[in-house]
Description:
Number of domains: 1
Oligomer: single chain
Strand content: under 5%
CATH topology: MetI-like fold
Order of helices and strands: HHHHHHHHHHHH
Mean pLDDT: 89
Amino acid sequence: xxxxxxxxxxxxxxxxxxxxxxxxxxxxxxxxxxxxxxxxxxxxxxxxxxxxxxxxxxxxxxxxxxxxxxxxxxxxxxxxxxxxxxxxxxxxxxxxxxxxxxxxxxxxxxxxxxxxxxxxxxxxxxxxxxxxxxxxxxxxxxxxxxxxxxxxxxxxxxxxxxxxxxxxxxxxxxxxxxxxxxxxxxxxxxxxxxxxxxxxxxxxxxxxxxxxxxxxxxxxxxxx
Length: 224
C-alpha cells in the first residue's frame, strides 16, 4: 500500500460527502418524485427536464454557473451572506449543495419510476380504510417503492463518489476541505505520482464494478 495521509483524508471526505448528499437527496427527492409521478400539471414536463438536466449537461458547465450563483454577487451567495453563513464555494457545504444538484436525477428518477409502477390502487385502498394521505404514504407507498429507494440510494452514493468536474469547479483542490478522491487522483497524476494514482483509481474501478454487480444481482429480489 502506497497510500499516504492525504489519500486517506480524501477517502474520508469523499465518503462523508457521498453519505450526506445521498441522505439529503432521499429526504428532499422523495416528495419531488411523488409529485412527478402523480401530477397532471403542465409544469410536470418542465420540472422533469430540469431534474434530468445534469444527465446531459457537462459537469463544468453546471459547476461554472453554480460558482457564479454562489459567489458574492450571485443570488445564492447574497442569500447565504445575508443569513450569516458566508459563501459556499471552496467549502464542504458548497460541495454538498453542488453534489445534490448534480446527483439529483440519479435519486429522483428511480423513486419516481417505483411510484409510477405502484399505480393508484394501493393508495385508493388505503383511503377506503380511512387512512390519512400521510399515513397511507408512509405505511403503503414507501414500502411498495422500496426497490426504487434502494436503487436511488446506491446510484446517488456511487455517483457522488465519482464526481470530478463539478467538485473541482466549486471546491477547488484544498486538502482535507474539498479534495475528494477524484481530485486526489488528478493531483497525483499532475505530480507524476502514478503509483499512488493507480491505487486510488483501481479502488474506484473495483468500487464501481461492485455497485453495478450489486444492482444487477439484487434488483430482482427488491421487486419481490
